Every structure is written in C-alpha cells, then in structure tokens.
Amino acid sequence: MAKTSPSEFIRQVRAEASKIYWPSRQETVTTGIFVGIMTVFLAVFFLGIDTLFGMFVRWLLSLI
Predict the structure, then answer these.
(1) Residue 34 resides in a domain
(2) Which GO terms describe its biological process (predicted)?
(3) 3-state SS of 2-62?
(4) Rg of the Cα atoms in the chain
(5) What global pTM score does this model have?
(6) Inside any domain, residue 10
(7) Pairwise CA distance, residues 64 & 61, whole Å
C-alpha cells in the first residue's frame, strides 16, 4: 500500500468530514422521545412476561 503524504491525508479527512450528516434539533428530540417511549413499553412488556413465568414456575413447584 502506497504511503500518503500528511497534506494528502488531511485533504482526504476534510473531504470525508464534509459528507457527515448531522441531524437537526427536531430530529434529535423526536428520536429521543421515541427511544424513551419504546424503553418504557419494553420494560413493561418484559415485566409482564417475567411475572407470568414466575407465576408458572411457582405453580409447577407447588405440584411437587
């Protein structure tokens, strides 16, 4: 692989950095709210599943 000069490297870095897309404030807030809602939803869902499995295991153990 050919060596790249420091000036060429910096030029390439600037060219790549100019391609970066930064989301707007509105997009960031909307995404953050969505993540928060999904986190709460999944927490409640897994709490329910865990509770059901716990009840099932307790019922199985009571049969012994």
Answers:
(1) yes
(2) intracellular protein transmembrane transport; protein secretion; protein targeting; protein transport by the Sec complex
(3) CCCCHHHHHHHHHHHHCCCCCCCHHHHHHHHHHHHHHHHHHHHHHHHHHHHHHHHHHHHHH
(4) 26
(5) 0.65
(6) no
(7) 6
